[in-house]
DNA sequence: CGCACGTGGTTTTTT
DNA sequence: ACCACGTGCG
């Protein structure tokens, strides 16, 4: 049995490509991960490179783990010499090794986004900045954006008062981080990048070592990540990038699909290999995806095909309201389960998280087990953050963020006044809050706290990691605190889970890092933990389309296919926004193996108001022959509100699934929610109206033609 | 210190 | 409609 068995010709070409740079355009379901791991195994097996010479980078820990597992399964080698991980994980590894050259303390701590936000708030306070004008969230976005472009504060161009001040805040923030010995996620990348660009010796060392650099999901890389890859790849190394421009859906967080074209040009890539055979979906599903994505102008070009049969048509359902849509989903899922399909093999996808509420409600009342993805992860839970802050303070007393989080939690009589005094004292000395607190006399509670931390530090020195955590939980009073709280049982359970996590970390990590508090803390920051446990039960899967990327299911529901929601209205104003929405729809469609449901609703409750919808253009972009309408295709009557105000045009209230009301028309012969036809704008839905008689004006949603206000007297409308 | 109330925001997310 | 966060009072 050879590595290369059962590869199709394109996969084989990619796996066995002689030493050169390569771009692999890997369509959805085309065996991308298999190609990547087999390539690595093949390079090693053929003696082309030793495991030491491999660097493979992904975006998520899950993908990195899967890659390692599959390599191990293909080759009986020790994978330890390879660098396989996320961009952040690999940069962390490099910075830990060269912390001095990178200008970092040995035990630098990693902040997650939450920590970063509170750090920014502290900077704003310290700099006396108006938080109304310079909103912490915006500053976070600004700083991370700059870092991902590879710019320090000094390199950011400021052209007005606002941006000048923003740059000052960025500089102040970086200073604070340096003082406190903490780095944020983008800093890991930027610091590593700067280290390599400044330090020629190190750069050459890594360039000579990593002969083969392989990148997964290359379309998701940002500018800095690409520049980092360029630095790392020397004249004797080869970059092997795998990606799919049609699945680029993360522009909003800095991903730059342009990296694919840049790579092709910068490296004079001779070989672009297209993996176009899809092993996942039936023919009609694939045809729908191909037709849809062909509406995008800027593509590298690719057409998926399958050896499987056509399969079923896509089932389209039009619901009266979001409530009805949810009820229909629940019913249809029951049918699928009756037919013998596992719930875990069925997914309900939506564009935005808010949509899950009603669907959950319907599933709950039908008693259908489900699992919602997204939301709080293990290491992000409050009690865990507190526990980690204690550990951080043990490892690194300069960490002011950690200090502030737990100095008075559990409450121990240290109030705002005392903390202010500590902050003032620290400002004078330029030291950390912890140091200032240790020197402040006359505050018994405060002294007790610093003593407790110091005692923890000495008492836990040399202990097993698991024991360190246990001891901290006891000494800090965290467990006791939650024991006294009504809802504390879950939190205690999570804290105990943290002890297990520590034990597991030691067990699974080999080498010098294994029983090391700092590496455990880095692990906690970089791998925020699985979303929810509840494994084992066979549950229906609920998630956003974004979250579904990379997954596949027997049956998929793509819900809320309405203009304004999917494609989302806020994407309309963004450059490339609509095309990205379409790629998102492409991702959604290609998740399904055999059955695909598309649904939309006439009315939907959004931000407390009923919205009247027009079906998504994405449905129209799928050839009619591939669709099977489950509801009569009433292009005319898009919306049926519960009632309209008898006088005038005040917005109508929500309809409930249990009530199907006849919508009375008002004196004009039109009602809110009614579908109308306009000579120029085509089909639309009356959304709201104002004025009476000759002055009456109607607001009409013409879908892709936009929302228009028209005077009833002049607009040539006909009921559609 | 903890709760009650008011206010703003509300696309997508990993590290 | 709903949630998260911040302020002010008891």
Task: Please describe the topology of this protein.
Layout: H1 9-15, E1 22-26, H2 32-45, E2 54-58, H3 61-74, E3 83-86, H4 87-97, E4 109-110, H5 113-126, H6 136-148, H7 161-180, E5 182-183, H8 185-198, H9 200-209, E6 212-215, H10 223-232, E7 238-243, H11 258-266, E8 271-275, H12 283-293, E9 314-321, H13 322-338, E10 346-350, H14 356-365, E11 370-372, H15 382-395, H16 400-406, H17 416-429, H18 433-439, H19 444-460, H20 465-476, H21 478-483, H22 488-508, H23 517-526, E12 540-544, H24 545-548, E13 553-558, H25 569-572, H26 577-589, E14 592-606, E15 609-612, H27 617-620, E16 627-629, E17 675-678, E18 682-690, E19 697-701, E20 707-711, E21 717-719
Helix pairs in contact: 1-2, 2-3, 4-8, 5-6, 5-7, 8-10, 12-26, 13-14, 15-16, 15-19, 15-23, 17-18, 18-19, 19-20, 20-22
The chain binds a DNA duplex (15 and 10 nucleotides) through residues 59-61, 86-89, 110, 112-113, 184-186, 188-189, 220, 249-250, 252-253, 351-354, 357, 374, 411, 413, 415, 525-528, 544-547, 565-566, 568-571, 580, 584, 605-609, 654.
Task: Write up what this structure looks like.
This protein is of the alpha/beta class and 720 residues long. The protein is 43% helix and 15% strand. The protein is built from 27 helices and 21 strands. The strands form 4 sheets. Strands 9, 10, 11, 12, 13, 14, 15 and 16 form an 8-stranded mixed beta sheet that branches. The chain has a 6-stranded parallel beta sheet with strand order 3-2-6-7-1-8, sandwiched between helices. A 5-stranded antiparallel beta sheet has the order 20-19-18-17-21, with no helix packed on it. Helix 3 (61-74) links the parallel strand 2 (54-58) and strand 3. Helix 5 crosses helix 7 (161-180), helix 17 (416-429) packs across helix 18 and helix 20 (465-476) runs antiparallel to helix 22. The longest helix is centred in the last third of the chain and has 21 residues, at 488-508. The protein is globular and about 80 Å long. It starts with 8 loop residues before the first helix and ends with a strand. 45% of the residues are buried. The model is unreliable at 636-667 (pLDDT under 50). The structure holds a DNA duplex (15 and 10 nucleotides).
């Amino acid at each position: 049995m050879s590595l290369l068995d059962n590869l199709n010709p394109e996969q084989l070409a990619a796996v066995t490509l002689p030493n050169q740079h390569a771009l692999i355009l890997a369509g959805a379901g085309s065996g991308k991960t298999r190609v990547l791991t087999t390539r690595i195994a093949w390079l090693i097996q053929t003696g082309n490179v030793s495991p030491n010479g491999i660097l493979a980078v992904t975006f998520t820990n899950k993908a990195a783990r899967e890659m390692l597992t599959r390599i191990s399964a293909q080759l009986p080698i020790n994978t330890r010499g390879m660098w396989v991980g996320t961009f952040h994980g690999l940069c962390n590894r490099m910075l830990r090794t060269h912390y001095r050259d990178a200008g970092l303390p040995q035990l630098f701590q990693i902040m997650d986004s939450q920590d970063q936000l509170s750090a920014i708030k502290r900077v704003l306070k310290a700099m006396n900045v108006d938080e109304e004008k310079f909103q912490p969230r915006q500053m976070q976005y600004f700083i991370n954006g700059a870092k991902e472009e590879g710019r320090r504060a000094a390199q950011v161009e400021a052209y007005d008062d606002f941006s000048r001040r923003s740059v000052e805040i960025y500089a102040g923030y970086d200073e604070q981080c340096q003082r406190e010995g903490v780095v944020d996620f983008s800093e890991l990348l930027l610091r590593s990048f700067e280290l390599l660009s400044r330090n020629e010796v190190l750069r050459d060392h890594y360039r000579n070592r990593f002969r083969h650099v392989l990148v997964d999901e290359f379309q998701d890389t940002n500018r800095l990540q690409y520049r980092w890859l360029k630095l790392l790849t020397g004249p004797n190394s080869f970059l092997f990038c795998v990606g799919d421009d049609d699945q680029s859906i993360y522009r909003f967080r800095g991903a730059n699909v342009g990296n694919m074209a840049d790579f092709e040009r910068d490296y004079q890539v001779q070989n672009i290999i297209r993996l176009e055979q899809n092993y996942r979906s039936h023919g009609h599903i694939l045809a729908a995806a191909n037709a849809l994505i062909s509406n995008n102008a800027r593509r590298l070009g690719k057409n998926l095909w399958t050896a499987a049969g056509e399969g079923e048509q896509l089932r389209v359902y039009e619901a009266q309201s979001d409530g009805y849509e949810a009820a229909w989903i629940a019913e249809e899922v029951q049918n699928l389960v009756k037919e013998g399909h596992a719930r875990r093999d069925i997914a309900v996808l939506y564009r935005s998280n808010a949509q899950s509420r009603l669907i959950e409600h319907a599933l709950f009342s039908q008693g259908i087990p489900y699992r919602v993805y997204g939301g709080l992860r293990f290491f992000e839970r409050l009690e865990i953050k507190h526990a980690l802050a204690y550990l951080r303070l043990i490892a690194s007393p300069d960490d002011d963020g950690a200090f502030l989080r737990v100095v008075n939690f559990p409450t121990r009589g240290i109030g705002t006044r005392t903390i202010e005094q500590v902050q003032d004292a620290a400002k004078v000395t330029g030291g950390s809050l912890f140091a200032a607190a240790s020197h402040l006399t006359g505050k018994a509670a405060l002294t007790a706290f610093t003593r407790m931390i110091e005692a923890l530090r000495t008492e836990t020195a040399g202990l097993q990691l698991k024991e360190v955590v246990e001891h901290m939980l006891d000494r800090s009073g965290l467990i006791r605190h939650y024991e006294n709280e009504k809802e504390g049982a879950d939190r205690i359970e999570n804290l105990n889970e943290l002890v297990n996590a520590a034990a597991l970390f030691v067990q699974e990590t080999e080498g010098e890092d294994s029983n090391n508090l700092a590496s455990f803390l880095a692990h906690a920051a970089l791998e925020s933990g699985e979303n929810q446990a509840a494994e084992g039960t066979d549950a229906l899967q609920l998630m956003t389309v974004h979250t579904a990327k990379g997954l596949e299911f027997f049956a998929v529901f793509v819900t809320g296919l309405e203009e304004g929601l999917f494609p989302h209205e806020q994407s309309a104003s963004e450059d490339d926004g609509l095309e990205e929405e379409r790629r998102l729809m492409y991702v959604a469609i290609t998740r399904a193996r055999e059955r695909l449901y598309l649904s939309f609703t006439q009315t939907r409750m959004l931000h407390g108001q009923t919205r009247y919808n027009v079906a998504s253009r994405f449905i129209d972009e799928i050839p009619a022959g591939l669709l099977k309408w489950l509801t009569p295709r009433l292009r005319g009557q898009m919306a049926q509100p519960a009632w309209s105000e008898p006088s005038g045009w005040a917005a109508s209230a929500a309809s409930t699934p249990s009530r199907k009301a006849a919508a009375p028309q008002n004196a004009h012969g039109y009602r809110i929610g009614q579908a109308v036809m306009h000579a120029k704008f085509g089909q639309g839905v009356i959304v709201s109206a104002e004025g009476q008689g000759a002055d009456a004006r109607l607001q009409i949603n013409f879908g892709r033609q936009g929302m228009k206000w028209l005077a009833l007297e002049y607009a040539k409308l006909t009921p559609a």
